[in-house]
Amino acid sequence: MKVQKRFLRKYKDKDYYKYMVNIPPMVLKESGLEYGEDLEITAEKGKIVLKKKKKD
Asked: Which candidate, 46, 21, 16, 20, places its Cα nearest to that of 7?
């Protein structure tokens, strides 16, 4: 799995990008996450953590 860099837009001579990772279907299923769900993202030393966003 690799982080992909995609061009988003150009504004005042500066390029902006977004970064994407494809999650394999089996990993998504095992995690209990579903397509379209809102997620919280945090960065920890050497890793990125995704969690289901708590409903208010």
From this structure: 16
